[in-house]
Amino acid sequence: MAEQEKDNTMTVVIAVTLIAIIGVFLLKKDETKHLQMSGETTAAAEAQVLAKHKDFNNDVLSQAK
Fold this sequence. Notes:
With 65 residues, the chain is mainly α. It has 4 helices and no strands. The longest helix is centred in the first third of the chain and has 23 residues, at 9-31. The model has no long low-confidence stretch (mean pLDDT 79).
């Protein structure tokens, strides 16, 4: 009898699923790394940043008054 070729479909599906799950866990671990490096935020520091903020509101009618 001729040997049947082994179907690797299930192996490929499992491998791709595992790679996707590992990738998600690596991205979730790296997601908030930039927040830990920035340090503590105080109300005074936030007020200083907001004071320098330029308003890009395109409402020219309210500015015409």
